[in-house]
């Protein structure tokens, strides 16, 4: 979020309001006070004039010795829109019947100095109203003043409605939206000058709900608290909580103890989708809760609602405890500052009664905490039961049968593995005797038998010792081996 001392932030707020007002001039809902009563602005003749205070801003920057063009382009310029409303008279002339003026005011000097912008006080607001020209001829005027830095609490009292003037105040709030203050009689008119669109408000509310999801499983989110945090209307928050609960399975928004609370029903979305527990009559839910064979989903729905209601009571008790503690601190200061004995006695009596109230609240909190703990434990156990049923796990008999099948499969796989290893070892030993004899025969016929036999003989003979003399051939010469091979072949060819 941008700093409140950043001029860009104030300029953006100014532009946002002006753009909204331009669109609002074409809205049939915009009705203002005129000499003819309250009339839609579109039914009258309109003379629109847009102005700003850019010249005054440049003069002020020169006086302060800050002729910075870049800073000037980032500063708010005090834009304003004035609409003169009139109707035709005698078919030719125009007669003014009303006036609408929207103007933006910013703490220019503080922004130029880089200081934190302070809210506009009552004196400053009255000064701005006094600088406006008076209404001529008793024409009613509707004045909408927007302060980019907000208003003080006392300044909101200036918003009123008189016969000749209606004042509406618009200011940004800390929650990221806008606060519009106007007379009670013109609330519908004041709400129209809120620049934040419906979708923007809804998205801001959804962001708040997403950021506080953890509270949904405990005490829930109450509509009045959400409205206070987001600074949105309670009616809008209640409607959006119900819509958000319908869009998100597992959530339910119900009115508990006079206020709408959104909480998580059951252990999760699946439980809520299966139960439909929020639509059950109370009598049926009580019967399901205490029946021996009640449905688990209905019990979870009832206990979730009960836990949320108890948590809301506990939260209110804590708030009351905080208030009592503040009162106790105030009474202690009164006793300390008191000068007479009578005052001290009165304060002592009040403090004693206050402490008794604190003790009662503490006892109530202890009971509520115990009840919440019991309900939460029961709800947790039911959630475990529901999760076990939804998992659909096999029983012991089925698991035993599957284990036996798995053991048989592993034994068969082990046997196949051993067999495969034996086959591999056999393949590595070489050829059978018949295959070896045929192989030798084929080798001899192809002329490679002598070479093979010589190689085998050389491998079987021991290595001769080395000597200085040159080695002598130990076997027949090549010619002798060739002659011996020929005689052997002739002998095999002759019949036995």
3D structure, described in words:
The protein has 496 residues and is an alpha+beta fold. The chain contains 17 helices and 11 strands. The chain has helices at 7-24, 54-63, 69-74, 108-113, 122-130, 187-192, 198-211, 223-230, 234-247, 269-275, 282-290, 296-337, 341-391, 396-429, 433-445, 449-460, 478-493, and strands spanning 31-34, 37-40, 45-51, 80-89, 93-105, 141-147, 165-172, 178-181, 221-222, 251-256, 259-264. The strands form 3 sheets. Strands 3-4-5-6-7-8 form a 6-stranded mixed β-sheet. A hairpin with a 3-residue loop joins strand 4 and strand 5. Helix 11 (282-290) crosses helix 12 (296-337). The longest helix has 51 residues, at 341-391. It is extended, with a radius of gyration of 48 Å. The relative contact order is 0.05. Mean pLDDT is 80; it is low at 267-278, 449-474 and 486-496.
Oligomer: single chain
- Portion of residues within helices: 55-70%
Q: What do the pLDDT scores average to? A: 80
> What is the helix/strand order?
HEEEHHEEHHEEEHHEHHEEHHHHHHHH
How many beta-strand runs?
A: 11
Total number of helical segments?
17
Strand order in the largest sheet: 3-4-5-6-7-8
* Class by alpha and beta content: alpha+beta
Describe the biggest sheet? 6 strands, mixed
């Amino acid at each position: 979020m941008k700093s409140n001392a950043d001029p860009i932030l104030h300029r953006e707020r100014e532009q946002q309001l002006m753009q909204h007002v331009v669109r609002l001039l074409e809205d049939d809902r915009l009705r203002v006070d005129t000499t003819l009563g309250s009339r839609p602005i579109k039914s009258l003749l309109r003379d629109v004039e847009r102005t700003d205070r850019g010249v005054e801003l440049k003069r002020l920057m020169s006086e302060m010795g800050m002729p910075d063009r870049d800073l000037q382009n980032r500063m708010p310029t005090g834009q304003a829109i004035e609409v003169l409303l009139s109707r035709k008279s005698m078919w030719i002339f125009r007669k003014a019947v009303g006036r609408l003026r929207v103007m933006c005011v910013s703490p220019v000097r503080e922004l130029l100095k880089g200081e934190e912008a302070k809210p506009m006080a009552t004196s400053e607001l009255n000064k701005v109203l006094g600088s406006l020209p008076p209404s001529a001829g008793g024409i009613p005027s509707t004045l909408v003043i927007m302060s980019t830095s907000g208003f003080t609490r006392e300044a909101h009292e200036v918003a009123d409605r008189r016969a000749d003037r209606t004042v509406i105040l618009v200011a940004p709030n800390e929650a990221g939206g806008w606060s519009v203050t106007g007379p009670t009689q013109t609330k519908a008119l004041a709400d129209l000058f809120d620049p934040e669109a419906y979708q923007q408000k809804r998205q801001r509310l959804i962001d708040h709900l997403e950021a506080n999801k953890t509270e949904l499983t405990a005490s829930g989110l109450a509509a009045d608290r959400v409205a206070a945090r987001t600074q949105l209307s309670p009616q809008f928050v209640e409607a959006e909580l119900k819509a958000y609960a319908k869009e998100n399975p597992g959530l339910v928004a119900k009115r508990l103890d006079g206020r709408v609370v959104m909480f998580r029903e059951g252990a999760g979305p699946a439980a809520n989708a299966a139960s439909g527990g929020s639509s059950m009559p109370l009598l049926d839910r009580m019967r399901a809760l205490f029946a021996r064979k009640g449905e688990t989903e209905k019990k979870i729905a009832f206990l979730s609602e009960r836990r949320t209601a108890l948590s809301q009571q506990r939260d209110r008790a804590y708030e009351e405890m905080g208030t009592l503690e503040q009162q106790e601190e105030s009474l202690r200061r009164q006793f300390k500052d008191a000068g007479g004995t009578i005052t001290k006695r009165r304060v002592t009596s009040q403090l004693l009664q206050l402490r008794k109230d604190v003790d009662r609240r503490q006892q109530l909190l202890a009971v509520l905490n115990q009840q919440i703990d019991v309900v939460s434990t029961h709800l947790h156990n039911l959630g475990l039961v529901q999760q076990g049923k939804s998992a659909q796990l096999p029983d012991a008999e089925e698991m035993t049968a599957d284990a036996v099948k798995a053991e048989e499969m592993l034994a068969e796989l082990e046997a196949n593995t051993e067999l495969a290893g034996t086959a591999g070892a056999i393949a590595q030993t070489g050829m059978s005797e018949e295959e070896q004899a045929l192989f030798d025969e084929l080798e001899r016929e192809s002329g490679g038998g002598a070479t093979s036999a010589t190689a085998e003989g050389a491998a079987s003979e021991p290595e001769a010792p080395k000597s200085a003399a040159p080695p002598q051939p130990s076997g027949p010469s090549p010619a002798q081996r060739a002659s011996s091979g020929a005689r052997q072949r002739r002998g095999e060819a002759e019949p036995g």
